[in-house]
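User: My notes are a mess, but here's the protein and adenosine-5'-diphosphate's SMILES. Can you give me a structure?
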Amino acid sequence: MKKIEAIIKPFKLEEVKEALSDLGIEGMTVTEVKGFGRQKGHTEIYRGSEYTVDFLPKIKIEVVLADGMVDSATTAVVKAAKTGKIGDGKVFVYPIEEAIRIRTDETGEKAI
Amino acid sequence: MKKIEAIIKPFKLEEVKEALSDLGIEGMTVTEVKGFGRQKGHTEIYRGSEYTVDFLPKIKIEVVLADGMVDSATTAVVKAAKTGKIGDGKVFVYPIEEAIRIRTDETGEKAI
Amino acid sequence: MKKIEAIIKPFKLEEVKEALSDLGIEGMTVTEVKGFGRQKGHTEIYRGSEYTVDFLPKIKIEVVLADGMVDSATTAVVKAAKTGKIGDGKVFVYPIEEAIRIRTDETGEKAI
Amino acid sequence: MRKLLKHLPGLAVAGFTATLLLVPLSSPAQAPTPSPTPMTAGTPAATAAAPAASPSMEDRVANLEAYLSNSAGPKTIQPASGPGHNAWMLTAAALVLFMTLPGLALFYGGLVRQKNVLSVLAQCLGITGLVTILWWAFGYSLVFGKSFNNPFFGGSEFFFLHGVDSAPNTDYAYWVSQNVYSMYQLMFAIITPALIVGAIAERMKYSALMLFMLCWMFLVYFPMAHMIWGISGFMSGISNANAGIKAIDFAGGTVVHMTSGWSALILCFIVGPRLGFKREPIPPHNLVLTMIGTGMLWVGWYGFNAGSAVAADGIAANAFMSTTLATAIAAFTWAVLEKVLRGKASVLGYCTGAVAGLVVITPACGFVNPTGAVIIGVVAAVVPYFAVSVMKPALGYDDALDTFGVHGIGGTLGALSTGLLATKEVNSNLKDELLRTLFLSQIEAVCVTLVLSTVATAVIALVVKAILGLRPSADTETAGLDISDHGEEAYIS
Amino acid sequence: MRKLLKHLPGLAVAGFTATLLLVPLSSPAQAPTPSPTPMTAGTPAATAAAPAASPSMEDRVANLEAYLSNSAGPKTIQPASGPGHNAWMLTAAALVLFMTLPGLALFYGGLVRQKNVLSVLAQCLGITGLVTILWWAFGYSLVFGKSFNNPFFGGSEFFFLHGVDSAPNTDYAYWVSQNVYSMYQLMFAIITPALIVGAIAERMKYSALMLFMLCWMFLVYFPMAHMIWGISGFMSGISNANAGIKAIDFAGGTVVHMTSGWSALILCFIVGPRLGFKREPIPPHNLVLTMIGTGMLWVGWYGFNAGSAVAADGIAANAFMSTTLATAIAAFTWAVLEKVLRGKASVLGYCTGAVAGLVVITPACGFVNPTGAVIIGVVAAVVPYFAVSVMKPALGYDDALDTFGVHGIGGTLGALSTGLLATKEVNSNLKDELLRTLFLSQIEAVCVTLVLSTVATAVIALVVKAILGLRPSADTETAGLDISDHGEEAYIS
Amino acid sequence: MRKLLKHLPGLAVAGFTATLLLVPLSSPAQAPTPSPTPMTAGTPAATAAAPAASPSMEDRVANLEAYLSNSAGPKTIQPASGPGHNAWMLTAAALVLFMTLPGLALFYGGLVRQKNVLSVLAQCLGITGLVTILWWAFGYSLVFGKSFNNPFFGGSEFFFLHGVDSAPNTDYAYWVSQNVYSMYQLMFAIITPALIVGAIAERMKYSALMLFMLCWMFLVYFPMAHMIWGISGFMSGISNANAGIKAIDFAGGTVVHMTSGWSALILCFIVGPRLGFKREPIPPHNLVLTMIGTGMLWVGWYGFNAGSAVAADGIAANAFMSTTLATAIAAFTWAVLEKVLRGKASVLGYCTGAVAGLVVITPACGFVNPTGAVIIGVVAAVVPYFAVSVMKPALGYDDALDTFGVHGIGGTLGALSTGLLATKEVNSNLKDELLRTLFLSQIEAVCVTLVLSTVATAVIALVVKAILGLRPSADTETAGLDISDHGEEAYIS
Ligand SMILES: Nc1ncnc2c1ncn2[C@@H]1O[C@H](COP(=O)(O)OP(=O)(O)O)[C@@H](O)[C@H]1O
Ligand SMILES: Nc1ncnc2c1ncn2[C@@H]1O[C@H](COP(=O)(O)OP(=O)(O)O)[C@@H](O)[C@H]1O
Ligand SMILES: Nc1ncnc2c1ncn2[C@@H]1O[C@H](COP(=O)(O)OP(=O)(O)O)[C@@H](O)[C@H]1O
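Assistant: No problem, the inputs look usable. Here's the predicted complex:
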């Protein structure tokens, strides 16, 4: 099993979710994160003080899936999340050693 | 070392935390996440518009521990988090290559 | 490639970010998390009820980088995040199998 | 006490039969058809004194002087509203609405968990709508009418606010338009049931709550308000020479706070505690909202207390002063108690103390001098403080937002303190005869209120439970009432 | 209708030329230099009746009685403000400001997404500043002056508030200081354009919005306010015997709600829908803010409606009552409709219903009795409910926060209901002659308002589009207006 | 200036000795025992004019006319409160409380970081309680009493509000109950120290703050308020013919804003900057709260400014107008400055500008005409804008929420502008003789205020530092004051 972790622009969440659903992926976990990268932030001014906000709101999607699904899933995510503009984000692939469904105690690929 | 990552229902946090403490696990990191899976969301209506909320609030617990602890810890988490109803969540196990305690520079299992 | 994940005290974020920038690391992802560990929480009292807050606000920084960068990066993070007081946090290192830049479809170390 | 016992059966009978029988029968017949012969004073554009014959210069000047002093004008001149008094009562009525919307809604809303904040707001909003309809149709008349000539219910002459126009109803105010007076009193009728919400927050079905409140208004609020404030009321010590109990209650210690507080206690017993109560932490989700609500309650309460003079006169002025002193001192005392007993003064402590001060001074504010107000301020913090932080945990009921601890205990305390501290130097309506037995009368009034509130609440709650059930399913409660009862989330980022 | 058609060209010409020509020419000449010979009544410290000669005792007492009844004093005594009426209007003016800052700002601010909440607040604040400057310089005079002796614009005598001091302007109020009256009316001039913001929230450039509002005040608000409320106004049925259309509008159903609502509709067509509209969910980011705003709007609206009597008299009292009944009943009815049709009563439903009730009762509140108010309350929920939840989705325009559905539809409904339900028993200013043709006059007034608002809005919007463009870039809109237009974030944790 | 220098030692001596010696000695002896022979006018229920003998018809009508014009009634008739004036002052007092709770608390609370928001609310609440107790016991008497017959402190006759009942104190108001007046003035005494909180927010120990405020009231506020407003005050230009400095201050430019602003500057120097100041960003955590607070401050300020007429007369009316104009124009000007100089108009800019406008118009509002108010509006934005965005960064002190920049600079500016723009056409109390030297007198008053505030603050701060220490540990400050000082978190999701 692998985990695909995608950092994407927030307004792309719906599209990415649908792309994954289309592949038959039924579960995922989503986190609000802040990203720092090539995409520049903006400046905020409060009375006398000026702050540069480097960290931009991003969404992290985590999907655990069987090894065989990794390629099609990453391709689908990349396609759905792309705008072609800087700051589109990344996909990372991690090894996973075990998965358990809490409700049923099922393990391995049956659990995801 | 391994990392155990559990996605659970929010109101089970206290119980899972205690189950892990009972095993002598003294540290963990918790994140508020949103989950998408078999458990259905709900519908919200704002005047003319109806939205289906697919993403349900979940809690992600991450614990890094020695290899030998993995089985007892996953069992404890599964037991504490189970309600038997859909949406109970998952436990994933990841390999970890190194851990460092920032305060003391200790590394490896001493660091966790 | 590896992922370095650091759990640090919130007010150390700026310093850690700068330490990583100084190494030429241009991207990272930050999440607000709650930590449970040796550092004690505090007590809150609301009229008749007293609650112990065990979970303290922490910041999780995730950086994916080339294998050769791992040592210098962990050292830099540890140095920048250290206060020497309990609760300074941890650094964990994970294996990563693949990385893709969504905007360009670049993969591997070029993607990060 | 004899008088009390003698009237108890009447009270019960009146409570149930008047409601169930008289009201529906008499009302549809006469109310919605517009009056064919309106009182001639009823054309409010001519609020001026329209001389019956041609009043003498002496009478005309006496009428103007009566306006200044808020007293009855000469008989030769028809009563009309006066601008200074009307101005204050328009303001006061708006202020009392402000106490509920959004004041109390925020005070309570901040104290619940995030998943239930909208349910509290919806309860306040729903009660506002429901009570307005009841008040328009029957309530005002049942409280302030007099056609029944009854100590427990008023009359049917004002059903559907029939004949309630801009001329004063001189039973209650010499110089304030009756339509404003009726709306001012409506605001009291709205906030009282809304206070109960605090005790059963986060766990009662919305439909059950609304049905409960519908019944509660008829069985508790309308009779209690008539008994205390109605011209023929059973416990209306000042205005009814034949009152069974000669009690006093300036702005609603018994009518508002004791009824809601004691009903809250019973209701929270019957509904039962929140899931997870005492097992998991249930901290307030937003204390800033609670503090905003406290500020609004305090400011709005000036309308409640000083407005209860139904004039911008010296008694209103005194009520303003005593309200300010008692509230600020209660807030401060509560914080000092926390600091001394637990090491830290909290924002929730200040807010709770302020509300407790407001509650306890309510029945007394038009009757006590600054020294009395200061004493009340201190007592208002000490007693509820222990009620909330010692008694409640000891007894183990889940009065979620402390409606009983603050309003029930506080209202009772206020009614009793009023008996001890009221002075005729502040309010010349307090005759020596009344004052002589006042403390006893206050105890009697407390007992009547307490019994009526608790018994009626128990009956209503059990009936509603049988019909609709009181609580949502455990799953629904765990998910939060906002989504399950209202289909909304409070905050989406 | 003949009268209407006859005046249409004049209306258009007046609208454009008076604004573009008269105003700038006549104003700088006379206003900012302090008056060398101030009206002697203008020393407001002596608000007392300063007898011209030495008035008789009869006149002096009659003057005092006129104060009580809010009528004209005897000619021998110079008009001065009276404390009760002034007290209420000071309060009412503050309440109407409270409706916008922070009331409406919160009501709207809670309904947008988090990234745009500050832009809504900035729009409300910016409009407040801009309109105050316009009002001071020209607006008050164009609406309430009479030197032009014109049905569409008032006069130039009050440019820069010249001569507007503490003495009453008896064209509009016998006993209220003109400076307070001018500020009271300013608050109306502020909230009206601010209402439009709801339709184009989350997607209009700040600079374009401000320029739009600047023009809109001259072309729509000032002429409409003069037409309805000016002493020489074209549709001022009560005060102008020569009015072309003898319509009535107690507190601004046409002037405030129809103008803003219909302009909002046109503007949201021209601006176009939000990015992602109908494709992605755009839920309110904070319904607690919306509910706070609703409470503040409701409370403040008492200043708006009861204040429109410009006195603390019986008509103000009646307006208070009818406003309360209609609002509470509309809120409750909306929630009942939701419960029946969709299964759940929502907080947003209660809030929308309350605002709809307030809107629809506005033109009627000083003219209808309790029964009328209750009828209006029900209608005020039912019609806007379907406008917002059926008509809007069907037609597909993006009236983001339902300014058209609530204020446009509601204001129109209010103007028409007033024609049906107004009764002289409530307000003796309604003469039989006026009442006979009232419903027709109201229809005519509705048509004039609707045409003026929509045509002028279309013209202004297209001009502003040509000059500045109406919308930010797609990227900017996606990132949110708070950062791009104001350089701030609302919440930082 | 001579007069000024001559009185300086007296000022210092009075400040310290009167406080430390007279007050504690004289008070316990006479105050808490209820008066055995109350003033007969003291039965406030009879606020009516109770004729001493039997006054003539002429006098009775003259008395009624005096009520209308807010002037002194004939000697034959005992003074009593009048409904219109009392109505407005009840409202105004509530509005001024609203400025602090929750207005200022939100304005400041939104500007701090999330971890410190409750500490700001607790400071506002704590000050409210503390100052109320001081005011009741000594403060009102030290400011508005006259038994000391002293230019720096009032008297001891009203200690514990003894004898303060519903009859007017005609030294200060002909027609307003003294108890309302005393509470109205209490609200000023509450908000003034609360303003200082802004300068040292996020880093001062709660206990140290409270001790500081306790001393500051006696050494700065009470003497300053007596000097400016007391009937025997040192700088009371209008009411004291023997005033050392014949200055004017309508609603508190010196007493409220200069004292708090200059004290804030000194205190923030002594306390030192926040940890991380200038090294890490410290942005406001919730600008929506700040905007709500701004709206509440603005609305409440009408009570502050128009209420300072202590009547609903023409001067109150003028104050309402000038306050509105100056505030809206200052808000708008500030935003225009931002737009021009930095490209974007911000919500915080609008809010800061509005507060600056309110501050600067405060001393002038009852003395200037619309043109004066507009000029003040523009100046009120420009000068504090540069103080806050250029001078503060240049000098490098950490005036966290700009108390000095807005209230210190703004109050000073207001006092001086009042000297230039006050006109007797607006306020006939301004005699030619007073106006002739007014600007000089204002400069002198500014100097006295500035010196007294800064010196006393430095002394108190150093004493408190020695006793309790001013700051929490670095760890505590980093964790936030909410948890460490109050044991609570503001938001729990
Ligand atoms: N090395 C990295 N490790 C972890 N997250 C990264 C890394 N580099 C970039 N990111 C994440 O990806 C987001 C987008 O990266 P950025 O450099 O702005 O643009 P792009 O994806 O177009 O290269 C960042 O905001 C950050 O959240
Ligand atoms: N493949 C997956 N990858 C990551 N997270 C998942 C995956 N499947 C489920 N989850 C997480 O587990 C939660 C529970 O899953 P769900 O299918 O609703 O019920 P159950 O755990 O009973 O099978 C989801 O809300 C989601 O957060
Ligand atoms: N075993 C663990 N797995 C995951 N996170 C941990 C673990 N132990 C500690 N942490 C994280 O590190 C933070 C700091 O740990 P703590 O024990 O308080 O102090 P220290 O880092 O000084 O040992 C915790 O708050 C938690 O977020």
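Chain F is about 65% helix and 0% strand.
User: Great, I'll file this with my notes.
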